């Protein structure tokens, strides 16, 4: 139905309703209201019609899943988790220290720039989708070497080379870590389920 047809139909309905109220002087002095209804018709897109509106979707970060040892190819190189979770507990006499870790490998493509390595790109997820941030493993001798961590050239990976090391988390061994998760700056996520 077109806009003019709807307005005309409302006008007829309003006049009919008012005429059915009777012709008393009280009715003629009653306040009136004008109702305007606007209907906008959308064109149905047809193939090859550039003027029709098209739906847009928001950009949602991609989540890709890999098996332990499988490499995730990114714009700068490859990332992989190469071992399942390993845990270590140390009793230093005054307190218990806990760590769980997985071993990761980062390889920078030969044509890429020298790239800083940061452990904070990595997270460990539990069965409830909680994520843990990395912590130092310096006191845990079984979880060495650590994956390099830094933002300057000293810890940057040269093009065409790889680094391997443990990424650790201050998590008690009673917590079941279910996935290693890599968060890149482009918003994409890469997951490796842990056993």
From TrEMBL:
Q: Which PROSITE patterns match?
A: PROKAR_LIPOPROTEIN (PS51257)
Q: Which keywords accompany this UniProt record?
A: Signal
According to the UniProt entry, where is the signal peptide?
A: 1-19
Q: Does the keyword Signal apply?
A: yes
What is the protein's given name? DUF4352 domain-containing protein
Give the originating organism.
Acidipropionibacterium acidipropionici
